[in-house]
Amino acid sequence: MIDIEAACLPVGMGSATNLNDLVLKLFEIGAVKFGNFTLKSGIQSPVYFDLRVIISYPDLMIDVSEHLYQASKTGSTYQSVCGVPYTALPLATCISTAHKFPMLIRRKEAKDYGTKKIIEGHYKPGDVCLVVEDVVTSGSSVLETVLSLQQEEINVTDAVVLVDREQGGKDMLKTKGIKLHSVCTITQILEVLGNMGKLEQDVINRTKQFIHDNRFNPNGNVKRSPEDEGGDRSIKRVKRVLTYGDRAKLCSHSVAKFLFTTMEDKQTNLALSADVTTGAELLRLADAVGPHICILKTHIDIISDFKPDLVHDLSHLAEKHGFLIFEDRKFADIGNTVKHQYSSGVYRISDWSHIINAHALPGPGIVQGLKEVGLVKDRACLLIAEMSSKGNLATGDYAKATLKMAEEHDDFVIGFITQSKLSNDPNWVHITPGVKLTRGKDSLGQQYLTPREVICDKECDIIIVGRGITEAEDSVVAAKAFQEAGYNAYLERMQKT
Ligand code: 5BU
């Protein structure tokens, strides 16, 4: 039995009803439902929370936010509140206005160029912010908001939620140094509604069994800095730099997710530009260098003996070694033409290349055209924002406009071919060609930066290396050297920031 008295909250300014009344009201308005529901994951659930409906009941909104505020008081002190978009945004607003805590808003998508903000509102490094959420299952949505705040040097020690589904979210957040406070748990809801005769015992049993059978394991993928380990949080700053693994969790596009996951797991930010001219040489390189790369980039039209079997075999090697294929086709025509270039002809690029790239020059129609083909196949596109060759015209405002175009198509565009970081939004992948172990140029205008300059100084994510590997005496030895240089530069950047 839960202690209902203890769950009753003090009455006073901003008083809250008792928990029984709150749970009953949530049940009556359909914010919590019992039956058979198919969740986004495809799992069948006997319980469903639709807490968005709360916004249609102003008194309930005030009551819920007051309960949240009271529950948060058992945690550390904080200077501001931030709701997890979207349902918890108005709840955080109510807490903010009723109790005079400044509010922060985390953007789901970042808008402006360069200094682009993910967090809106006034704050200073070292501020402590309370994260507010409506319902927690695995904890991943709370974590997303926490990571965005930490990226701006805002500390998060506590989060508060209306309903804890008791499926592992609290434990997961604990592994990240976040204490989760809940107004109620699903066990409490079942008990309250059971006592009131609103639920049959078999519904209660089925729901309990479901919760028990569907717990998420806490997964400590986020690297923790020493500052996270307790201590006086109010004076210590936590600048959490997002690892590739953290970013995999944030990305919604499956190709970007796979890419970041691969980079973290294989410890490589190296893309091989396999600019060879025979199929046999392409396959030999892919097999030999495959363990060291996250992407294999092709120029399929320079293969003199191309046969459809080649891309079939290449796809097998991609699966074997866990890398993505990126056909560096640099589409640059009107939407209708690129659609055909992407899907038909001899190469049928969309059939085998996970990633393609395009110039932004023709305007958004090019992305729309490519997207018509690629989206259904779960393909991804990179926009060419800046080039490595001397005297190229893709600079300044051009790169800015490219970012804007990408933002308008973020269901298909996952990032940029660029020479420097364009946006702080961790969802975008920044990929840089023109890389050798020492600076330099070739005789036709190519300009080379080092892996450290690209990854550490310019804060890009992936180095593209062609002749540095293909013309080396031993391509595997060279690939390993680039892998090491690129990954060490990434580790150095993690330390530095
Ligand atoms: P390199 O051998 O490492 O110079 O090869 C670089 C590759 O990257 C090559 O395939 C180019 O077509 C590709 N590339 C580039 O070098 N610079 C750019 O700005 C773009 C692509 Br976009």
UniProtKB/TrEMBL annotation:
Specify whether Glycosyltransferase is a keyword of the entry.
yes
Identify the catalytic residues.
D328 (for ompdecase activity), K330 (for ompdecase activity), D333 (for ompdecase activity)
Which EC numbers does the record give? 2.4.2.10, 4.1.1.23
What is an annotated GO biological process for this record, any one? 'de novo' pyrimidine nucleobase biosynthetic process
Which keywords has UniProt assigned to this entry?
Decarboxylase, Glycosyltransferase, Lyase, Multifunctional enzyme, Pyrimidine biosynthesis, Transferase
Q: Does the keyword Transferase apply?
A: yes
Q: Which reaction does it catalyse?
A: orotidine 5'-phosphate + diphosphate = orotate + 5-phospho-alpha-D-ribose 1-diphosphate; orotidine 5'-phosphate + H(+) = UMP + CO2
The family annotation for this protein states: In the N-terminal section; belongs to the purine/pyrimidine phosphoribosyltransferase family.
Q: What does this protein do?
A: Bifunctional enzyme catalyzing the last two steps of de novo pyrimidine biosynthesis, orotate phosphoribosyltransferase (OPRT), which converts orotate to orotidine-5'-monophosphate (OMP), and orotidine-5'-monophosphate decarboxylase (ODC), the terminal enzymatic reaction that decarboxylates OMP to uridine monophosphate (UMP).
What is the name of this protein?
Answer: Uridine 5'-monophosphate synthase
What phylogenetic lineage does the species belong to?
Eukaryota, Metazoa, Spiralia, Lophotrochozoa, Brachiopoda
